[in-house]
Amino acid sequence: MIRVSIIGGSGYTGGELLRILSNHPQVEIDYITSRKLDGVPVTKVHKNLRGIEALEGLTFKNIPPEDIDSDFVFCATPHGVSMEIVPVLYERDIRIIDLSGDYRFEDIEVYERWYNRRHTGKLEGVYGLPEIYRESIRRGKLVANPGCFPTGAILLLAPLIKEGIIEERILIDSKTGVSGAGITPTDTTHFPNINENIIPYKVISHRHTPEIEKELKKLSTRDIKVFFTPHLVPVTRGILTTAHVFLQEERDREELLDIYRRFYRGEPFIRILQEDIPSLSGVRGSNFCDITLEVDRDGRVVLISAIDNLVKGASGQGVQNMNIMARFDEREGLYFGGLAP
Amino acid sequence: MIRVSIIGGSGYTGGELLRILSNHPQVEIDYITSRKLDGVPVTKVHKNLRGIEALEGLTFKNIPPEDIDSDFVFCATPHGVSMEIVPVLYERDIRIIDLSGDYRFEDIEVYERWYNRRHTGKLEGVYGLPEIYRESIRRGKLVANPGCFPTGAILLLAPLIKEGIIEERILIDSKTGVSGAGITPTDTTHFPNINENIIPYKVISHRHTPEIEKELKKLSTRDIKVFFTPHLVPVTRGILTTAHVFLQEERDREELLDIYRRFYRGEPFIRILQEDIPSLSGVRGSNFCDITLEVDRDGRVVLISAIDNLVKGASGQGVQNMNIMARFDEREGLYFGGLAP
Amino acid sequence: MIRVSIIGGSGYTGGELLRILSNHPQVEIDYITSRKLDGVPVTKVHKNLRGIEALEGLTFKNIPPEDIDSDFVFCATPHGVSMEIVPVLYERDIRIIDLSGDYRFEDIEVYERWYNRRHTGKLEGVYGLPEIYRESIRRGKLVANPGCFPTGAILLLAPLIKEGIIEERILIDSKTGVSGAGITPTDTTHFPNINENIIPYKVISHRHTPEIEKELKKLSTRDIKVFFTPHLVPVTRGILTTAHVFLQEERDREELLDIYRRFYRGEPFIRILQEDIPSLSGVRGSNFCDITLEVDRDGRVVLISAIDNLVKGASGQGVQNMNIMARFDEREGLYFGGLAP
Amino acid sequence: MIRVSIIGGSGYTGGELLRILSNHPQVEIDYITSRKLDGVPVTKVHKNLRGIEALEGLTFKNIPPEDIDSDFVFCATPHGVSMEIVPVLYERDIRIIDLSGDYRFEDIEVYERWYNRRHTGKLEGVYGLPEIYRESIRRGKLVANPGCFPTGAILLLAPLIKEGIIEERILIDSKTGVSGAGITPTDTTHFPNINENIIPYKVISHRHTPEIEKELKKLSTRDIKVFFTPHLVPVTRGILTTAHVFLQEERDREELLDIYRRFYRGEPFIRILQEDIPSLSGVRGSNFCDITLEVDRDGRVVLISAIDNLVKGASGQGVQNMNIMARFDEREGLYFGGLAP
C-alpha cells in the first residue's frame, strides 16, 4: 500500500487520476490539492465519482508542497506551475510523476524557446514512456510524463526509427478530441463552434513537435526531422495519429509488422493490429495504444495509432509509471478494456 | 428597397440576420453595430459569410441609436439592453423588431419579476408571432419578437387552446440545441461537458414560462396553467417541443389534425405532418415549424413541434415580421428548405 | 468463483457483459454463444476488449442451451428468442438472468399484446430491480432484467408512488442514446440522420409503457396511469428521464428528497442529488442511477433520473443481480465511477 | 429558363440538387427519377423540402433516360449505373452533368482498374472543375463532376503545382463527414460506431487517388506522385483536406499566398484566407472552398482546404457547371453563405 497525492486535481487529468486511483487496490489517496477549491468535496467537481466510498469525505486542500509527505505525488499542474512545485518535493525524496511539459526536455533551451518562459532549473528526471524507458522509470525519482500527442506519435514510430530503415522526413498528422484542450471553456471549445467542425491549429508550431523529435532522434542512428500538424475534431476523448514516412529500401507490410511485434513483445498496453485499423472507439477510457500500418507504392508507409488522450496520453500512463516505480504489477488499476460503444 | 440596421450584430442572432438579409432582394443593410468591434469587418466575425459581395466592406460600427435613420432596425441586443435603445428609435418613428424579451410582456410586473430587473417603461408594441398577430404586426411600429421556446410551444398549442377542448394543465418538455445559449463560452457549453450529455436546466423556473402562458391565456376562454421544463441537448441548432395535455372530451387524431389544418390554412411556414414526426433535421436552417400530434388512451394528447431556434425561433421570424411590416411577400428571403442531412 | 455463460454475445449488451465480467474477480467465463460467429474470437467483435488476458482465446460458440452447464447464464438474446432458450436452462436448474422482455410480465396477455407474439409459457421468475426486489432476486432462479427505460423510470418514481401522495396521472418524457437501438444499422441510426437531430418515436405506444405501469402499480395503493413518450437523441449512451406528476397535498422539496433518501438508504448504486441535476455525463459507463426533483407551483413535481442504458439499464444491472444471487458483494465488478468527460 | 431533370434523385446528392435547384430562378424541374420510388412525392424522402411550392406535386418517376427530353440532366447515379444512362442521353444531345466517377478519367484503363468494372466506352467529356476548365465546361456536352475529395485536394494544390516549385511527393490527409458515405446505413455509419470516433479507411487505396493525381499531373511540368489517406470523422457534412509538400526553393508564406490569389483571381467560390484557418463551419451548406497555407522549416508547406462535400464537393459544383454551360451568372442559386453556427 502506498500513499499518493495529486497536486492540481480539479482538471481533467486530475479527475482521471482519481477515477483510476480510486480503483487501485494498493493506493491510498492522501491529498488532492487545489488553490481555489479548498474544502470542496472532490466529487462536487468530479461528479462521475460521486458515491464511491473510497472518495467519501475527500476534499480538495489548499496545501503547499512542503506539507505533503506522501510516497508518490502526481503533479497535474500546468506548464510553468510544475517547475515551482517539483523541486520542493524532489529535495524531500518524494517520488514524483509530473504531467506537465516542464521536465520533459533534457535541453532546457529547447523548453524555454517552445514554451516561451524561463525554467527554474533542470532536475534529474526520466521521460515516462514505459515501453522505452521502463528500467530508468523503475529507478526514477522524477518522471516526466509524456505529452498526449507525443505518446501516440512516439509509440507509433519508435520501432521503425530504431530499425533505421526510413527516410529523414517524418510527417505526422494528428486528430485530437476536445478534452485535450483542458477544462476551461474557450471560443474554440464552445459547443456550437467545434461541433460539426474540424479545426486545424498550430499547424507548424505545436510545442509537442520538439518533444516528439528529440525522443525519436534518441532512437535513431541518423538524422530525422519531424513535421507535426494537429487538428481538433468534435469528439471528447482520443487522439488518432497518422504518420506518413518513406522506406529507404523495399519492405512489405508483414516484415514491418514483425518489427513492431518484436519491439513491443510482452507490452501489456500495446496492441499491434493485423486486420483492423485503430480507431478511437477501440481505446476510449482505456490505457491501450493501438497501432497498425500499410505499405503503399514507392515505399510510402502510412502508420496509424489511437490512444485515449486522458488515459494512455496522460493519467493512465502516469499510473503505469507509478506502478513501475512502486514495483507493482504494471497493469494494476489499469487493465480494463475501453468503453464501446 | 428598404434600409435596415442591426443593433448588436456580433452574436448568433445577428449573424443569422445577416445571413438572411444579405440574400433578401429588397433589403439594403445600413449599419450593423457593436460596441467592442468598431471598424472590424463583419465577415471577420461571421466567417461563413466571407466572399458575399453584398457584405464586402461592411464593418461593425459603434454608433449610438440616435444616429441611425434606417427604415427598420433589428435589436439583437440582450435583455435589459434593448430597453435602453428601443425608446430612442421609437420616438423617431423608426420601425423596430426587438429580439430580446424586453417588450414581450403587456404586464411589466411580470417582466420585472421573471427577468429580475427594473423596466424603463412600456411602449406600444405587438407580440411578433405572425401566425396569430399578422394584422397587428403589419401596422406595428415596435414588434417584440417571440422567444425561441415560446415560438415552438405557442405554435404547437394555439389551435387546441383556442378550440377550448383541453384541460387546464399544459405540460411542456422542450429540448434545445446549444446555440440557444448564445455565443459566449461557459462551463455548460464547453464541448466535453455537453457532448454526449443531456442537461435539464431551470426545470421549474425558466422565464419563457410566463411568456408562453400569457400568450396561450389570450387564446383561451378558460384558465390554463403552463408547466415548462427545458433540456439542453448536444446539437447546435433546433428546438424540439413535446407537449402533454388531456382532452376534456373524446376526439380522435383526425379531428384534431383538422383543427390544426384549419387554424394554419395558408400559412407559408407551418407544416402539419400527417405521417411523419417532426424532427430537427427537417427544419435546420429554415423558417419552418413542423407540427404533429397523437392521441393516447384517456384523452392524453402528445403534441410535437420542431423549429430552428435561430431562424423561426429568432432571426428568421424577425425577417418574417419585417416582410409583413414592409408589405413584402412574407416569404421573401426566407423561403428555402432546411439543410439536410 | 462461479462459471458464467452469455447466450447471444455479439450485440451491445453482450459486449458490455464481457467488459464487466472480464474484470469481475469471482467470475470465470464459460461460453459466449453466437449462431453466426462460431469460432470467431470475441475480441474481433468487441474490439475494445482486445489485449485483455482473461478473454484471450475466447471464441464465440454456436452451442445449444442444452450443452451449457454453467452456474449462471445471461440471455442477451432478443425478445422472442429468450423464451425458446430460457425453459431449457430453467429445467436444468441453471440460474438465469434474461435481458429480454420475455419474462418481465406476470400477465402473459399483456406481454402478448404489446410484443405482438405468442408466449411459450410463464415460468416462475422475479423482476430484476434490486432496489425493490433484492430478497426475491437472492432466491431467484430466473431473473427478468428490467428494460432500460423502465429502470430509469421506476427508480425515479417508486418512492413517491409508494408514499401514496401523487395524483393518478404520471407523465414520463424520456431521452435515450442511440445504443439503445442495438447494434444493427437502420435508417434512423444512420449517422447523418440522427446526428444534430432529435427524433420522438412510438410517442404513445412504446412497449416499455406497460412494464413501467405494472411495476408502479404494485407499489401503489391506488390506481395510477403511466403515459410514456421516448425520444432518440444524438448521444451513444444514456437515458435521461423526466417525469411530471402532481402532488395531492402540499409538500416541499426537502420533504420529498427525504422520502427518496429513506427509500434508497444504503443502496450502493442510487445517488440522490441535493444540489446538482442528473445528466448523462455523471453516469456514463457506470452502474449508478442519479435522481433529483423539484417542486413547482400547484404541486407539480419534476423528477429527473439519469442512467447508462447499457450498464444500469441492462448489463450492469444484470451483473448486480448475479452478485445478489451468488451472494457476492453486490458491488463486485461494478463499483467504478463513470467516464467523464 | 431551362428544364432540368435529375436521374437518381433519392440519395443525398439528389436531395441537395433539389434544395439548390428549387431556389434557382432560371430552372424548372422536369423529372426526378427513381427506380424504387415511382409515384412517391419527393418531399416524402427529402423532408427538409416539404412546403416549398416549387416542389409541390413533384413525384419520383421510374422513367427511362430515353423518355427524358430536358435541356439538362444531372445523373446522381452510382458508379457503374451512370455509364448505362449517359450514352442514351448523350446521343440525343441533352447536356449532362454526371456526378459519378464514370466519365472522370481520360484513360479508361485507370478507371477499370480502380473501379474494378468494365467501362461501356469513352465519351467526349470534360472534367467539371470550373476554376480550371471553365471554358471547356461552357462548351461541354458531358461534364464529369469531380469527386468530393478531388475537389478539395485539386483546388488546394493546383496553384502550387502549376507554379512548378514543389517536390514530387504530395501527401494528402483528408477528413470527411459521414454524408460522403451516402444514404444507405452500414456498420461504419451506425451512430454508436462513428460517433466519438475517427476511422481511417482505404488508407493507401482510395480511388480518388488516381483522380487527384491525373488532374495535378496535367497542371505540372514535371512528375508528381499523390499519396492520399482519408479518415471518417463524426460530422455530417464537410471535407477538411491537409496537404503536406516540400518546396524546391525557398519561398515565404506571402509569396505563396500571392500565387494563390493570382491563380484564383475573380473566382466567386474560392476564398484564400490570410488570417484564419479553413474549417468546416465556414463552408457548411455553401459552395465555397476555403484555402490557406503555412510554410514550415525546411521548405515544408502545410496546405488546408475546407468544402461542403455535398455542395462544392458534389451538387453545388454540379449546378455551378450547369450555370456555366447555360451561360447564366455562375453564382445563380448558389451564392449564399454557409450555415453557422
UniProtKB/TrEMBL annotation, chains A, B, C, D:
GO terms for biological process: L-arginine biosynthetic process. The active site is at C148. The keyword Repressor does not apply. InterPro entries: AGPR, AGPR_AS, AGPR_dimerisation_dom, AGPR_type-1, NAD(P)-bd_dom_sf, Semialdehyde_DH_NAD-bd. It holds the Pfam family Semialdhyde_dhC_1. One of its GO terms (molecular function) is NAD binding. Pathway: Amino-acid biosynthesis; L-arginine biosynthesis; N(2)-acetyl-L-ornithine from L-glutamate: step 3/4. CDD domains: AGPR_1_C, AGPR_1_N. It catalyses: N-acetyl-L-glutamate 5-semialdehyde + phosphate + NADP(+) = N-acetyl-L-glutamyl 5-phosphate + NADPH + H(+). It is found in: Cytoplasm. GO terms for cellular component: cytoplasm. Its EC number is 1.2.1.38. Keywords: Amino-acid biosynthesis, Arginine biosynthesis, Cytoplasm, NADP, Oxidoreductase. Residues 3-140 form the Semialdehyde dehydrogenase NAD-binding domain. The keyword NADP applies. Transmembrane segments: none annotated. Its main location: cytoplasm. Belongs to the NAGSA dehydrogenase family. Type 1 subfamily. PANTHER family: N-ACETYL-GAMMA-GLUTAMYL-PHOSPHATE REDUCTASE, CHLOROPLASTIC-RELATED (PTHR32338:SF10), N-ACETYL-GAMMA-GLUTAMYL-PHOSPHATE REDUCTASE, CHLOROPLASTIC-RELATED-RELATED (PTHR32338). NCBIfam families: argC. This is N-acetyl-gamma-glutamyl-phosphate reductase. The lineage of its organism: Archaea, Methanobacteriati, Methanobacteriota, Methanomada group, Methanococci. The gene is argC.
